[in-house]
Design brief:
The protein is an alpha/beta fold. It is built from eight helices and nine strands. The strands form two sheets. Strands 3-2-1-4-8-9-7 form a seven-stranded mixed beta sheet, with helices on both faces. Strands 5-6 form a two-stranded antiparallel ribbon.
Length: 229
């Protein structure tokens, strides 16, 4: 059994690295793996606060001359730094180096595999979908700083309501079809299109709610939004 967790940078490094969260997450992951020798985890790590801060600095420095690919590469490098941190917490069970090209990997040893950003035009959400396809996972668990997907941004729209489940058609109508560097959506449009094509489901849930994550991993009732229902 292989589970894919898209571990948002907003929970690994909201502003800087969160060592307390990493310690608790490591304990949960190890406990889940220890319960069954057939279990494996793929962790795809995002850029978080550092990615957004460095991208903003670039835009502020060059103004209208900002190049989208250059901005994307800045975010990708932030994901790789965060992923290296996460991998380092699992060195004894994660012998493979951080994966930076999800299409180049066909097997992995150990119990955990850690991946980061790939190339411009693709987010870590897309990397998670590619790895789910390659290793036979039917669900991607997308962990971020939101507990559920909303019909609109609740920070700006008081009528926004949380969604328990939604079809890919309905979700894609909300997020559009194109990816832009730093775009802040529950699951990116390019990854959503590919996940729909593959028949994958995505669970969006609060990454810091570790008891809820444990329930998801165990197939129990959880708080979150199921996309592709």
């Amino acid at each position: 059994m292989t589970n894919v967790l898209s571990l948002g940078g907003s929970i690994v490094a909201p502003d800087g690295p969160d060592a307390a969260f990493l310690k608790e997450f490591s304990a949960l992951a190890r406990s889940w793996l220890d319960a069954d020798p057939a279990r494996r985890l793929i962790l795809v790590v995002g850029g978080g606060g550092p990615a957004r801060a460095w991208q903003k600095a670039y835009r502020d420095a060059v103004g209208d001359q900002a190049d989208p690919d250059a901005q994307d590469w800045i975010g990708i490098m932030a994901t790789r730094l965060n992923a290296q941190l996460v991998r380092s917490a699992f060195l004894d069970i994660c012998p493979h180096e951080v994966v930076t090209d999800p299409t180049a990997l066909s097997v992995f040893s150990g119990r955990i595999l850690v991946a980061a950003g790939w190339k411009p035009g693709f987010s870590t959400d897309f990397d998670a979908v590619v790895l789910a396809e390659r290793f036979g996972a039917r669900t991607v668990v997308n962990l971020s700083n939101i507990a559920k997907v909303y019909t609109a941004d609740p920070k700006t729209d008081p009528s926004a309501r949380p969604i328990d489940s939604i079809s890919w058609k309905g979700f894609r109508a909300m997020v559009g079809d194109e990816w832009t560097p730093g775009k802040n959506v529950p699951f990116d449009p390019v990854a959503s299109r590919r996940a729909e094509e593959l028949g994958l489901q995505v669970i969006c849930a609060a990454g810091r709610d570790l008891p809820n994550l444990a329930a998801i991993l165990e197939g129990q009732a959880y708080q979150g939004t199921l996309i592709g229902a």
